[in-house]
Amino acid sequence: MGQEVGKLPTTDVVEYCPGKVTADVIQRQIRNRGADFATSPDADLQRAASKWVSDQYSWILSDLQLAVYGRTCSWTFYAGGRANHVAFHASSHNVDEPAWERRGWRATLYNGVRMGLKVVGNVLPLAAPIAAAVPALGAPVAAGMAAVGAGSRLISGFM
User: Fold this and answer.
1) Which tens digits make up the pLDDT trace of 74-103?
2) Cα-Cα-Cα-Cα dihedral of 16, 17, 22, 24, to 10°?
3) DSSP assignment of 14-67, as one string?
4) How is residue 137 annotated by DSSP?
């Protein structure tokens, strides 16, 4: 019947990645679409996904389904059992950050530990002045809390 006025054609691409999803596979999709596509907002969304992939651990990428929902195209890259589902949306307020649709047990555990360490790192520096202010605890506890607070800065550097 023809194309609806004002509606762009959509293309859906599904690509299996043997071993793990890599930034090279995503970049290849941008190159395959041509020079006009390389300057489009959808290409920027794919570049954000490519950057995110390059910053992840291989154990996440080897069991991942990565969806990129652009304005004119959508892509799905997957590897392994697809326990981790991540999506980049063109309509998102922050296109550089993906939406986790589902985490596998390892990613859930890793994220929980990382968030717990972040909370500990933020709370411990606040506890030293409180311990110093309470006379029953005395100076030894305040000094110990300050030392632990210095260690928490070390922990927060890993996140």
Assistant:
1) 889 999 988 888 888 887 666 667 777 777
2) -80
3) EEE-SSS--HHHHHHHHHHH-HHHHTSHHHHHHHHHHHHHHTS-HHHHTTEEEE
4) T
CB atoms within 10 A of CB 157: 8
pLDDT in tens, 17-75: 899 999 999 888 888 887 778 788 888 888 889 999 998 888 889 999 998 888 888 88
> SS3 breakdown of the chain: % helix, strand, coil, rounded to 5?
50, 20, 30
Q: Cα(128)–Cα(53) distance, rounded to whole angstroms?
A: 39
Is residue 64 packed enough to be buried (19+ CB in 10 Å), middle (13-18) or exposed (0-12)? buried
pLDDT score at 136: 54
Q: Model-level pTM?
A: 0.60
What whole-number distance in Å separates Cα of residue 30 and Cα of residue 47?
8
Length of the chain in residues, anyone? 159
